Amino acid sequence: MPVRLVDHHVHTTFSDGLATPAEIAARAAQLGLAGVATVDHLAIGPYNDEPGYSIEIARIDEYIAAAHAADEAHPGVRVLAAIEVDYGPDTIDEAAALLGAHDFDFVYGSVHFIDGRVVDTRASLQGSLWVDVDAVYRRYFEVVAEA
After folding, report:
1. What is the predicted pLDDT for the residue at 113?
2. HSE, side-chain direction, 13 A CA sphere, residue 75
3. Beta strand 78-86 pairing with 35-42
4. CA-to-CA distance for 130 and 106, rounded, in angstroms?
5. For residues 94-131, b (16+ Cβ closer than 10 Å) or e, as one string?
6. Which member of 44, 85, 91, 140 has the lowest number of beta carbons within 10 Å of its beta carbon?
C-alpha cells in the first residue's frame, strides 16, 4: 500500500499565510496529499501587536467554516481546521475560553514570545534585544516547560 502524505501545519490568509483554505485544499489535491490542516496563529492581548500575524477573534467561526467547506469540496483530501495558540502566561484564561468556545479539529501550542519579546525571527535575535543566544534558548525552554 503506498504511503499518502499529509501536511498538518499550513497557515492561511486568516493569519500570516498566503492562501485561503480552498486554495490550500486544491493544491493538496494536485500534489496527491491525503490531508492538510489549516493552522492559523491565535495571539492574544500584548502578543497580538503585528497586523496580519494572528487571526482576528471575530473571524474564527468564518475560518473554521472555510476549512470545512474546503474539506467538502475536495473529497480526496481531508482538510482540518486547527489553531496555533501563542502562549503567554497572562493570557491563559482568555485562550482557554476561546478554545472552549470553538470547535477546532486540533490545537497547537507555541512559544513565539519570551518575556514580552518576539524570539523566533533573525531580527529579534540580533542586536541589543538579545545579547546571548544561548541564554535566549535556555529561557525559551523554560517558558515551553511552563506552558
Report:
1. 82
2. 0
3. parallel
4. 33
5. ebeebeeebebbeebebbbbbeeebbeeeebeeeeebe
6. 140
Domains in the chain, start-ordered, CATH in brackets?
A: 6-110 (3.20.20.140), 114-147 (no CATH)
- CA dist 16 to 6, 42, 52, 84, 105, Å? 21, 11, 6, 12, 20
Task: Write the pLDDT tens digit of every residue in 39-86.
Answer: 999 998 877 767 888 999 999 999 999 999 999 999 999 999 999 999
Number of helices and strands (H, E) in the chain?
5, 6
How far CA 38 is from CA of 65, 86, 107, in Å, comes to: 12, 16, 11
